Amino acid sequence: MNNSEQRQQRLRTLVHKLNQDRKRQAQKIDLLCHDLVNAQREFIQRLGGVSFMAGFYRALLGITELDQLLEISGRHLMDIWPDVSVTFFLKQFEGFRQYRAHVQEEWDKDAERLEHGFNDELAEAICRLGRTFDQDDLLGLGLQVSPALLKQTTLMSLPLIAGPRCVGFLLLYRPGQRNMATEGVQQINQVCQGLAQAIESCEALSGYAQ
Asked: What is the value of pTM for the model shown?
């Protein structure tokens, strides 16, 4: 191999190495861009959650009447899912008190049928276990609702826990078999503890006034 051929060989080797380096660099840039986009998306989601929490707690400031607290809370939960209906189950000395904070007008009869499926035994189990339950979980715990109604409904319960005590739970339900987005469930869970404490305070004030 003469000198010219050797130079060409070295040049080809160098060009090949440069191309490989460029590909590796491009892959690193793609990964960095992907990570940046994911980080921005996560940050925006967190901002949305913080904004919801701030608006929710701001709306509850100064409220001392329990029914008003439940009504306003239910209205704000609609900011996440406008088509969701909300019923509170609040633990009493004996059994549970139900408060329908918001229900879609066309769902009045179905809402009543759903609520009747939650007897005291089931409500006690939900409070005792103290976690979120989806429709299948609730059926496993003993929910008694007609299969025909369940086929056209999506429902979920979320506990309301203040310190060591579960004061009750939220029942969320909507028409159709559509899962409730994880992000929305997380946002509601984030305000449940504060809401439970507010409920406990209103109950205490009500008992004191009596």
From this structure: 0.72
